[in-house]
Amino acid sequence: ASAIVWTRDQYPVLAAKSVQGIELKSKFKPDELVGSENKKNGKLRIVKLADKKVATSGEIVTFSIRYDNLGNREIHEVVITDNLTPRLEYIADSAVSDIPAQFEIEDNGEGSSILRWTLDEPLPGGRGGVVTFKALVR
């Protein structure tokens, strides 16, 4: 009878962990990334020309601004800006760029305008371009 008291319908439960050694093989390749900043200034030339030497009130003058990258490295974020004198009034929709650029115009607080072309892409070494616009002489 005592054996029945000590006997259960459930067998003893054995819990254990399986501990195995794991071998991990890795290959490491030493790499070194080195960067250097070229602190030389870009070589950008800009020249502004007008189609007339003398103009009187009421005449229209066409201006050309030539810019060139004289270096051999590309120049980034090129912006051409012209702040017109109060004697000149920008003629709407006359701004043209031979290289893709975003054109902006804003009031300069002196009764005229600030014209700004921002090139869409970096300007490669040895390359240049021209922007033109017309202005009315007051």
How would you explain this protein's 3D organization?
The protein is mainly beta and 138 residues long. It has a domain at 44-137: Sandwich (Immunoglobulin-like), CATH 2.60.40.740. It has one helix and eight strands. The protein has one helix at 2-6; strands at 44-50, 60-69, 79-83, 88-90, 96-97, 101-107, 113-119, 128-137. Strands 1, 2, 4, 5 and 8 form a five-stranded antiparallel sheet that branches. Strands 3-7-6 form a three-stranded antiparallel sheet, with no helix packed on it. The longest helix is centred in the first third of the chain and has 5 residues, at 2-6. The radius of gyration is 37 Å and the shape is elongated. Mean pLDDT is 81; it is low at 1-8 and 10-20.
Concise description?
With 138 residues, the chain is mainly β.
Topology (SSEs and partners):
Layout: H1 2-6, E1 44-50, E2 60-69, E3 79-83, E4 88-90, E5 96-97, E6 101-107, E7 113-119, E8 128-137
Antiparallel strand pairs: 1-2, 2-8, 3-7, 4-8, 5-8, 6-7
Which parts are unreliable, with pLDDT below 50 for 5 consecutive residues or more? 1-8, 10-20
What is the count of β-strands? 8
Output the CATH topology of the domain at 44-137: Immunoglobulin-like
State the CATH architecture of the domain at 44-137.
Sandwich
Name the overall outline: elongated
SS content category: mainly beta
Task: Work out the helix count.
Answer: 1
Can you give the mean pLDDT? 81
Helix share bin: under 10%
Cα gyration radius (Å): 37 Å
- Note the beta-strand portion: 35-45%
- What composes the largest sheet? 5 strands, antiparallel
Give the ordered list of helices and strands: HEEEEEEEE
Q: Assign the CATH class of the domain at 44-137.
A: Mainly Beta
Terminal residue distance: 125 Å
